[in-house]
């Protein structure tokens, strides 16, 4: 049995958004809605979903950048909400994030070297010399050369900037890396280079990844398990090839058949693709209005996440029978 | 048959502080009536500049310095600005990646479509408005009467792109230039927009140039494909030929570097194939083939002499010494 690095229990995050300046009444939006999930040590857990499904909010909750409205996040068995200042600092040492937009997540006035070694300075690790050496070694590991050290973010290409972001995330030797769409803004040929790098680093540093992406093909390449979110809820979780071969949730099926195939002869869609994700605060399945299998029960009861077998979870009343 | 759009040896340059760059450098392309031509390439390859050149909507520092853009027998580059304006939106329409920046945030979407209609057709306001509601219905917007009174920010990204398409369709253009129309959208919305575009194309016998970085989108939506690299077309072919037998090492590299290209599961390969290096600096183009630095097949001639686009098999053109059997 793999060690559980992270356990998420009944996690909720509600934001209040105003309906515009003429309509001051604030409306609650459940960005993350009773999430249950674990991340095993050493695995790559792929988290997919479309914009607004709450995947980035979940990532921010995990890093402690946001506080949950209710529910728990356990890291190695300890509730991160109960951490003392000291423990919180240690937690932030072990959990690092890689962002989508490498340009806005790097300080334009800092050189690459200074960006990469900054976490060491903040956590007071080593002296000036060893910090610099650690940062330079890491630059080499992520495919940047020593001559890049004194350059500023605008002098790098998108792919190189993402390498800087990766080096910064690794410099503290974290246990868990949360990568939020790290290759989404890169061109395909560069995307492949970065994905390969992430595979290598995982082995070298013994990392665990939570890899957030809207791209099911990228997740298919990297992930050991795949979690699918829809409007704040986990709707399906399965091991990698299985999620693609035998998806159970109608939403997962819709997502998979929406990926444009690179085979020009395969044009037929298996699933009807329709509608947009619209959150409604009522009971029942959130996906029912777009679902072609809808039955009466779907509007009456919110489906619970059920174990379909040992490793396959699905939140659908009709799972297994459609 | 005469192509509807015949681009011959087009050269578009930009003057920048660091000097002049050739964003589009000698591109020749034909688009046949009724087809969808996919133009693929990575950022900076010149695909957007190509479409803006056809519309003659280049930013102030951009200039077309050579070539012809023949649309239905007329060279668009010889038209006066006034004549060009009469064609823009009427004969040739364009949709962009980010509908939010192409729509005016302070006007209702119905009014914006009606404005486009009245620019090219002498119609009373009321009739134009009725037509605009009809167009919204046609692009699959539910309750079009009500939605016409919405402002762009009231609509989702997918709905906004539908509004842009309605506006583009308002004067029944013969040619639609779509620049990354689904890039900002989620996959399930993308699938719906691509389907809508295909349906409208058939119904209105329209010709489409679809510019995208997404090879899957091209495979699904286009009949022919042109691959661009560093301001040049390096390969063009029927869509099946291109995906079955890519000839240019760059096209081959692109297709192999897709995560979708490898099997998943226990037998999956450990690594993706990659194209080493990155796109050449537009200010310092290598003298020979622009891909030669990154190419595994590079021969001596590639570094000296630039290959021209040559027809290898029927309808399949490639600009590569190696593929041409040198």
Strand order of the largest sheet of chain B: 6-7-8-3-9-10-12-11
Shape annotation of chain A: globular
| Number of distinct beta strands of chain B | 12
- Structure class of chain A: alpha/beta
The whole-angstrom Rg of chain B is 21 Å
Share of helix of chain A, binned: 25-40%
Strand arrangement in the largest pleated sheet of chain A: 6-7-8-3-9-10-12-11
Question: What's the mean pLDDT score of chain B?
Answer: 92
Q: Termini of chain A, distance in Å?
A: 32 Å
List how many beta strands of chain A DSSP finds.
12
Give the ordered list of helices and strands of chain B: EEEHEEHEHHHHHEHEHEEHHHEE
Largest interface: A-B, 41 and 46 residues
Strand content of chain B: 15-25%
Given the C-alpha coordinates, what overall shape of chain B results?
A: globular
Determine and state the CATH class of chain A. Answer: Alpha Beta
- Corresponding CATH superfamily of chain A: P-loop containing nucleotide triphosphate hydrolases
Helix content of chain B: 25-40%
- Sheet of most strands of chain A: 8 strands, mixed
Q: Which CATH class of the largest domain in chain B is shown?
A: Alpha Beta
- Would you list the SSEs of chain A in sequence order as H and E? EEEHEEHEHHHEHEHEEHHHEE
């Amino acid at each position: 049995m793999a060690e559980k690095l992270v356990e998420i229990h009944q996690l909720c995050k509600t934001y209040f958004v105003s309906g515009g300046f003429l309509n001051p009444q604030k409306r609650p939006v459940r960005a993350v809605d009773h999430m249950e999930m674990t991340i095993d040590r050493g695995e790559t857990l792929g988290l997919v979903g479309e914009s607004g499904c709450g995947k980035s909010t979940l990532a921010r909750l995990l890093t402690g950048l946001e506080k949950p409205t209710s529910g728990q996040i356990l890291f190695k068995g300890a509730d991160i909400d109960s951490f003392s200042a000291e423990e919180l600092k240690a937690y932030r040492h072990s959990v690092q994030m890689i962002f989508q937009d490498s340009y806005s997540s790097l300080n334009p006035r800092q050189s690459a070297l200074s960006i990469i070694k900054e976490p060491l300075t903040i956590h007071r690790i080593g002296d000036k010399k060893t910090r610099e050496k650690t940062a330079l070694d890491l630059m080499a590991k992520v495919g940047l050369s020593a001559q890049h050290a004194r350059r500023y973010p605008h002098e790098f290409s998108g792919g190189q900037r993402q390498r800087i972001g990766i080096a910064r995330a690794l410099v503290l030797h974290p246990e868990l890396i949360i990568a939020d769409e790290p290759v989404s803004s890169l061109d395909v040929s560069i995307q492949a280079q970065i994905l390969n790098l992430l595979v290598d680093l995982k082995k070298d540093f013994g990392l665990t990844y939570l890899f957030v992406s809207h791209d099911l093909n990228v997740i298919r390449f990297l992930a050991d398990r795949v979690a699918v979110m829809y409007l704040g809820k986990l709707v399906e979780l399965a091991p990698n090839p299985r999620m693609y071969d035998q998806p159970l949730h109608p939403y997962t099926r819709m997502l998979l058949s929406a990926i444009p195939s690179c085979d020009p002869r395969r044009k037929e869609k298996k699933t009807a693709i329709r509608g947009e994700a619209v959150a409604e605060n009522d009971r029942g399945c959130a996906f029912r209005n777009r679902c072609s299998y809808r039955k009466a029960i779907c509007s009456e009861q919110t489906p619970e996440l059920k174990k379909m077998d040992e490793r396959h979870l699905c939140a659908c009343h009709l799972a297994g029978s459609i | 048959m005469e192509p509807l759009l015949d681009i011959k040896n087009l050269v578009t340059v930009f003057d920048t502080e660091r000097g002049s760059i050739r964003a589009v450098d000698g591109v020749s392309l034909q688009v046949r009536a009724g087809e969808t031509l996919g133009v693929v390439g990575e950022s900076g390859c010149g695909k957007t500049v190509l479409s803006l050149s056809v519309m003659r909507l280049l930013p102030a520092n951009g200039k077309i310095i050579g070539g012809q853009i023949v649309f239905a027998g007329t060279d668009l580059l010889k038209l006066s600005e006034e004549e060009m304006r009469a064609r823009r939106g009427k004969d040739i329409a364009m949709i962009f990646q980010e509908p939010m920046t192409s729509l005016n945030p302070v006007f209702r979407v119905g009014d914006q479509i009606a404005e486009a209609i009245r620019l090219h057709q002498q119609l009373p306001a009321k009739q134009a408005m009725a037509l605009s509601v009809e167009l919204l219905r046609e692009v699959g917007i539910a309750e079009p009467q009500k939605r016409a009174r919405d402002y762009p920010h009231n609509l989702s990204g997918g709905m906004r792109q539908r509004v842009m398409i309605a506006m583009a369709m308002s004067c029944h253009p013969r040619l639609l230039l779509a620049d990354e129309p689904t890039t900002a959208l989620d996959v399930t919305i993308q699938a719906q927009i691509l389907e809508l575009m295909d349906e409208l194309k058939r119904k209105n016998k329209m010709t489409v140039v679809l510019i995208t970085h997404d090879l899957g989108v091209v495979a699904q939506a286009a009949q022919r494909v042109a691959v661009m690299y560093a301001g040049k077309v390096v390969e063009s072919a029927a869509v099946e030929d291109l995906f079955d037998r890519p000839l240019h090492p760059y096209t081959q590299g692109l297709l192999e570097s897709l995560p979708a290209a490898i099997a998943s599961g226990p037998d999956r390969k450990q690594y993706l194939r990659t194209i080493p290096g990155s796109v050449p600096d537009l200010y310092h183009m290598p003298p020979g083939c622009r891909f030669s630095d990154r190419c595994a097949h590079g021969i001596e001639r590639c570094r000296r002499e630039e290959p021209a686009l040559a027809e290898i098999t029927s309808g399949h053109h490639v600009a590569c010494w190696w593929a041409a059997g040198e």
